[in-house]
Amino acid sequence: xxxxxxxxxxxxxxxxxxxxxxxxxxxxxxxxxxxxxxxxxxxxxxxxxxxxxxxxxxxxxxxxxxxxxxxxxxxxxxxxxxxxxxxxxxxxxxxxxxxxxxxxxxxxxxxxxxxxxxxxxxxxxxxxxxxxxxxxxxxxxxxxxxxxxxxxxxxxxxxxxxxxxxxxxxxxxxxxxxxxxxxxxxxxxxxxxxxxxxxxxxxxxxxxxxxxxxxxxxxxxxxxxxxxxxxxxxxxxxxxxxxxxxxxxx
Amino acid sequence: xxxxxxxxxxxxxxxxxxxxxxxxxxxxxxxxxxxxxxxxxxxxxxxxxxxxxxxxxxxxxxxxxxxxxxxxxxxxxxxxxxxxxxxxxxxxxxx
Lengths: 250, 95
Hints:
With 250 residues, chain A is an all-alpha fold. Chain A contains 11 helices and no strands. Chain B is of the alpha+beta class and 95 residues long. Chain B has helices spanning 32-43, 68-72; strands at residues 8-14, 22-28, 51-56. Chain B has a 3-stranded antiparallel sheet, with helices on one face. The chains are: A mainly alpha (250), B alpha+beta (95).
């Protein structure tokens, strides 16, 4: 089994899986019918992407595990998503802030992944990029609306950005598997995306009349499986059916 | 938090090229940009459309159902106004 490639795929897939679950939590709980559907659509887009990644991962694993086993039946430490995507829907500003800070990265990442030497990863990236372009449009639009809206919406959006900012740097960390994949021109060298990311995010925050957080201290650990306390609760929701009724199918 | 509703918008979707935009329904949005995005999410997520129009509902002037008699009934007994005396070729669709 190609150990590094397997780990690399999981790293990408887990970001979409966990963020998809977070957005899915808004199903029936969105601030308005229209935004509820929009958030759920994003969730479904992400779950769709996740299937392609986990199917590929299952193929590489080459054992009896299916895409569902890999997605649903790992333990907390075995999930390699960045800390940003597991942060809760504290309020709509946090939902939008988290989505925005991830989307800008996600689009840049997929743009590069299209050039991967790995044919499957490149094909998945090409398929996902249109969806993610829309996600960027949606979340950016809302950051501007809330930032440049009323004093109350501005305050809430600013608070969300300030709180989530500490999780942004991790997007540009590399695990050993990431480094190995970059050296084989399969993986994306995320370090090279960092400058353009902060430039883009800062420009958009400015446009939204929000302040760019000054904090220089950043959280990390998700990519190594060390998560914030929120992931355990999320997983107990996500995994409930398969844990309670093993091998259950629709 | 404000509980005031956003304005109502009427949504028209063109299902495929060559067919006119049809009224799909209505939704709430703060402005035209948001109305377009909401319409995309609410009405075209199952691949229903290739183009969307949004019109704020207040800009639509509607006929009064009370006037239906004078407006529409006189047309009912004038069959010669209907193009029913022609044979339409099968190739002509959407007439």
